[in-house]
TrEMBL record:
This is FtsK domain-containing protein. Residues 903-1111 form the FtsK domain. Residues 1213-1248 are annotated as: Disordered. Keywords: ATP-binding, Membrane, Nucleotide-binding, Transmembrane, Transmembrane helix.
Amino acid sequence: MSQKYNKPSPNFTGTLLVLTVVAAGATLVVGLPAGWVAFAGVLVTAWCHPAPMLTGPKETPATSREEVLVFQHRIWLDIRNSLLLGNRWGWRSLWPGVPPRKTFFVSAAAGALVASLPLSGHVPTMTLAAVGSVVGWDAPVVEMPWQVAASSGLLAHHVLTAISTLLQRFASQPEVTVGIRPLRQMWSSKARPALLAAPFLAVAAAWAVGWGLEQLGQEVAAWRWIGMAGGAVRALNLAVGPPLSRIRLRRWRSLKEAERDWEGKFAEVFTSKEGAPQLVDRMRTPCGAIVDVVDAPPKLMAAGLQGRAEMISAAYGDASTRIDVLGSPNLDAAGQPVPGTAHQLRARIVQWPEGAFPNLLDPDLDDVSRDLALESVMARAMDAIGVNRMVLVEASQVADLPAKIDPRLGELAEKRERRVRKQIEKLGEGHEEEVAELESSLEEPLESVGTSPFQGVWRWLRGAPKSPLVTPDDSPLAIWKTTWAMPGIPTPPWQTIQSEYLGIAAECSTVIDDESVEVDAVVERREGFLLIGDPLSDGARYTEESGIDLQSVRNVQAEIEWEKRWEQTLPQGAQPPTTRFEVTRDAELPQRFAREGLVLHEQLFATKTGLDAGETYIDPRGKDLEKGMRTSITGAQMVSMVGWPSEKEGPGSRHPHLFVVRWSTQPVPTTPQDVSPAEQAGPVSTSASAWVLAHQINSAFRAAGVKLPKPEVVDAEALTLPASSKHAWKVTIRLHGGTTLVDVRKKADAIRSQLTCPWMRIQSAGDGQVTLYIGDPGPGAKLRRGADVQVRRVDFDQAFVDSNITNLSGAVPELTKMEALESNPQVEVLDFDLPSGVDFAKVKGNREKLRSNLNVEFLDARRHGASSVRLFMAEHDPLPERVGIPFDNLPDTPAAFGVNALGEQTVFDPLENPHLLVLGGTGSGKSAAISTMLFDLIRRGFEPVIIDPTKGGRDFLFAKDWTIAPFAADVFQAASTMKALRGELDRRKALNGQYDVVNIDKLPEEARPRHIVVIVDEFTSLIGKSSVPSKSDDPAADHARLEAEAENDARAIVGNIVGRIAREARFVGIHLILGTQKLKQDTLNKMSGAEDIKVNLARMGLGNMTQGDRMSAFRNPLEADTIAEPRVGRGLFEPLTAPHPEIMQVWYEENATLKDHLLEEGVETPAAEMLLDPTDPRFVVTPLEDFVDVVEESVVDPEPIVEDIDLELGDLDLGSLLPDSDTAPAAPEPGSEVVDIQEPPEIDDPDAVGARSVRLSELYEGTAPWDLVEALQEMVESEPVAEVLVDVDGLDVESEVGDTYLDLIAEVTTGSGAHLRMVTADDEPAQSAADVALHDEADESGPFDEDGFDFGFDAPPVVRGGL
């Protein structure tokens, strides 16, 4: 019957309890039965406990405080009823229960102690006596029978039992029972020492209680024994009670903890109508996961609770903790879980704190953590793919693991290592044998770890478990074979599950200590199991009992991957091929500067029935399956689909139903020159190089600019060594789809562009096959033995075709030999056999085309037998830059002056080439070439004549002592010299006639004159006519016209005599070397005897010549060798016997060096009778005297002009031409120099212009003569100078430019309009400037007549002025 609570009553529970305790203690002191007092006090307290005042509706608790008060009141009511045996809790003091309760023994021991205390009747006797004295009653002496003690103890036991029971109920705490299982748990835990010490404590406590009771006066032995038993039990409870309570209450405490944790969180997730899950159990796994077993609300069931997993995780509030809601298996009659089942209501909420998820690769992982992790992984994976969850049936280890070892072996090994290393350090040097023994001892295995008996006993006493054995560190990783069931579904959708293996593997993976742990998963859909762990690595090993091997597992995984890839690659609805694991292989492509090669993979596939491999997969029209497959293969850098060869048709054919896919996830070379060959060549089917080349060629054929069907590679041969920095390949392909060789040739440029290779050649291989030569065999490539000939052969085949050097059937010259030229290793010598229909003329005529197509800078063709041709070729310029004369290796043939591209010395032989034209601009090396030829000609006995009106022969000063005529330094001197040469020509012709021979070389030795070589530098400017002014009434202007006409007359003389020498002089031993900067096409045509000049004139061109220059200079300019880069002394030489101008490099030496060598060889200077005398009046050509205005005119007879008249002056008295005199001077000896001395003209008015006379001594400060020239130059530029007086000695020495310093001073003086005069020591004039200007070496002792005429070499200088 419910009790109503109307109003609060005063609560004296605490006071009554204190009074009860005090009273009980007092009764113990006076020897009264304390159990009675305790029973009565607790009963009164319980009876007096007031009912709480309730403020809620219908007298219900309104607050949590009121709920607690109601609960406490009910407890006191239950205590009251228990004390009065009014409920079942009151009878617990009479029966310990099964298994027995620990509280029963504790309270019984307390009752025993209370009962064993000695009782005294003294207080009752005194009380009765006091009462008797009042009422007059003789009070008896009260005795305490044993029943009183026994009842006191029972009541104390009853009270303690009731109180502990109700307190236990108040705390909702389960009973702590005593039994064998709890004791075993204690024994196996760290509580073993307490369990071992408990008997000793019990004995000690019993003895202490017995002694105490005896001291208190307990004389009854039975009560002492009862007290000792109670004390022993209390001591046992003191020692064993706490650990026993911890063990027995561990699950309850965990459950209470779980309830506290989830109470608020469940309130957020579940409504009051749904109801919250009821916690059933909580456990912690060895890995640290927390598993809370709950009963789901009936409205939700376990499946609905699993669907609230995300909400529960959100309510949990800890992002680092992973929450999984898993099903719970059904339990059998024995309370054991039934594998493969799922409870309808019960579920497990798994909490994975950060770092708690186990490493599934760990072979030592415990079963509980493993199974829980696997179930969590599969639950998440199944939810992700939208299929029903699966439950774990079994998980077993199938990895072939080594035997487990003691984990302390590693520590012992480290200690041994440190100890041995210290010993080795102490030994030092000179103890090699001892060190070797110690080193070998480190390799001995440690089989076991020894333990001393004391350590074993101590571990046993402490209850410490043995160290579990572990798998060695170097063992394979774990592989768990798991079987699963899907409740309610007999056949799970394994194919769907198999397709999501990556998701399962990702869920299995975790991060431990900031290190990622990647776990693989393989789904075997046919047999219905999963492999989780490390089933695919190279180190994976399976046990024989499992019936699994690595290759079969890899095939299963590969099949899954390929199905997904084809699904992503093929159009929707297309049939994917079947993976054939008969061919699954890898190939390694060597990489330069890398230890590991590039790995490529190959997989065989078979098409479904009715599908052709080529049309459907290899080369489908309008589809690029390779691109799609490259996207589907993670990280693929290359994907290639090629055919599988048919056994009947051979290499390069395509099986109708089989094909292979090749791919690589590493960067693959994109050009043939980057594809490295293997050290040992292998077949195409297993060669990584051939795979990459096939991919490159197929990509090129399928490119937008080519659009040809993909071929198949038949063979791939490396033309270069593996160590080469770049490579070239010979690849034979078989064409498909109707493609022909003609189609490939048409697209050759586009194919080469797609391959991005600088070199590609195409040849027919017959039977529908084509050979491609691709790559880069150029500089830097290391060709294999014999490959150079092969490369050259195909290069020349292509070049011959491009140059139209083929016959009607397309045959080209065949390369038979190739070697480096011994005289010039830069030049290659190649011999070719000419096919019928191709002759040497065809090769020669297309030489320039062939050179261009071969991309070489030098190419020359020569006959080599009746049906062969020899080519000389150099890729780069084969000539040296600037070479000195090899004085010790000059040929016997005269005029070697350089070297050609073949390393041969270039020779100008005047006997074969009577004359030579040298063409070259400033700085081209023209003068150097002439100097070198002149040097060798002088060595061979030729007598030179130098005509250089521009530089005065400065470039040929070394030959001055060997010339037969003085240097001709202007046009008049040139004309005089040429007339002297004409006289020598006539003399030699007469000599030939005298001996009746046609060539002087056939004259008797004693009468045979030497050959003469005439050097005419700047020839075209020398013979070119100057413009002539019109006639004028102005005497000065008309005189200028006469000067120009005189100069042109002299030029005409030079040109006419040069033409005559070219026509007639080759038989008399006179040869011309004409040098010029420019040569117009009609320059030679305007000369007398132009045709003879062209026929007898060898040609040389130096420097950067234009095509017009070549057309003007050479007979066969179109076939001239190509000059790659103009350099000093580099040019073309075309002797009369050469078919075309040949490239050559001129030697060069300084003038002093050439002269020194001539002197060293003892070359004789010409005899005096051999010298020519251009100053002979018969030959001399003088300029018109300068015009001078005078105040008084005088009548002067006009001087007759003689134009190119060959006068016989032998009988003419020259003295008759001189002014009257008493005695005519004697004619000069032949060959002597005559100095013409004239009086300087008067200066009309030097003061009018402020001009003055300058002495050189004023400018000369004892420095070098060159400084004197520069000082004079500055003087005449800064102020007017009328006259320069030479009063300094030592100016007749040769300067750095070849002229004497006196010549340079005379040139500066004349150029400024002043006069140069020689003065004596007493400052009197000795000679005029006209006597010394512009001559080479004036002979001071030369013959002079009294009028001052000089009959030596130098012609009179041009005098600026009038008559």
